[in-house]
Amino acid sequence: MVGVAQRFFFIVIEKVSLSRPITSIYQKLLVIMDGKEKMKEKLEKYSPTAIALLIGELTAMAGAAIKNALSREACPSTTALLDDIMEELRYGHNDTIGVLGPDLRLNANLVEKVARRVENEGLFDAVVTTTVSNKPNYRKIQDEIARSLGLRFDGENTGTGVAKKGLRWLPKVFGSRNDKLNDEIESRARRLRPRMLAEEKILVILRDVCSNGVDLEKVGIPYGIYHTGCKLLLTSASEDVLSNHMSAQRIFTL
Fold first, then answer.
1. Cα 99 to chain center, whole Å?
2. Edge-to-edge strand list for the sheet holding 126-133
3. Nearest 10 degrees: CA dihedral of 198, 203, 204, 207?
4. Would you tell me which of 24, 60, 146, 162 could form a disulfide with 151, CB atoms 3.0–4.6 Å apart?
C-alpha cells in the first residue's frame, strides 16, 4: 500500500511540475527533501494517510498558484492600460472617465503617471488632482484644486472653534457652525468655478471616490455643457460609484 501511494505521489509531482507556477513549489520540495532520492527514502517512513495529506496540501498549493497566475494574465498590464487612458484623453469624446480597481495605491500610481504624461505632452492647459475618500471634505478638496490653479481664498474667517462665555446663544440666532461651513464652501465654489472656466482645457483627477461619490457642483467644478473643455478622471474601488453616482461614460478596469 505504501508503494502504491508513493508511486501516485510521484505521478502527481511529475504532472504538476510541468506547470510554471508549480515548478517553484516542486523545486522547493526537492530542496527540503535533498533531491529525489532522499525524497524517496523519506517517503518510505510515511504512512499512506500521511502521503495522501501531503498530496492534498500540494494540490491546494498548485491550485492557488495557478489561480494567481491566471489572474495576473487576465489583467491588462499597467502600461497598456495607461496607453488606453491616454488615447481616450487625446481623442475620446467622453468627459467623465473612470478607473476601477480594488488597490487604491495602484490606482493612485496609475493616475500620477497619467498626470505626468498629460503635462509632458501638453494635452491640457491645467491638471488638478485631489483625493475624495469615503467622507468628502469639500473644503480640503477646494483647497487642493485652488492651490494647483494659483487661487487663494482670501478674507475667510476660519474662527478658533472656541465659543466665548456668554455668547453661546449666537449660533441659535445666526445659524449653526455647519451652516456657516456650508456657506463658506458655497462661496468658495463661486470663486473656483470662474477660475476653472478660465482654463480652456483642464483635467480634473479625483482619486478614491467612495460611497455616494462627490458633489461636483458643491465643489465648484464646471463640466459637461458648462465647460466642454473639462475632463474628469476618477478612481474608485466601486463600479456602482463610477457608473451610477458619477456617471462615468467609460470605465477602465485595473
1. 7
2. 126-133, 202-209, 230-236, 96-100, 250-253
3. -170
4. 146
0.85 exceeded by pTM? no
175 conformational bin, left if phi > 0, alpha if psi -120 to 50, beta if neither = left
How many Cβ atoms from other residues are within 10 Å of residue 77's Cβ?
A: 9
- Report the 10 Å Cβ neighbour count for 2: 14
* Assigned C-alpha cell, 98: 473612470
User: Can you give the C-alpha Rg of the chain in angstroms?
Assistant: 29
Give 30: exposed, middle or buried? Use CB within 10 Å, 0-12, 13-18, 19+. Answer: middle
Inter-residue contact 202 to 230 (CB < 8 Å): yes
Q: Which residue has the cell 441659535?
A: 172
Evaluate whether 114 touches 190 at the Cβ level (below 8 Å). Answer: no
Please give the single-letter amino acid code of residue 212: N
Helix 2-16 × helix 20-32 angle, to 10°: 130
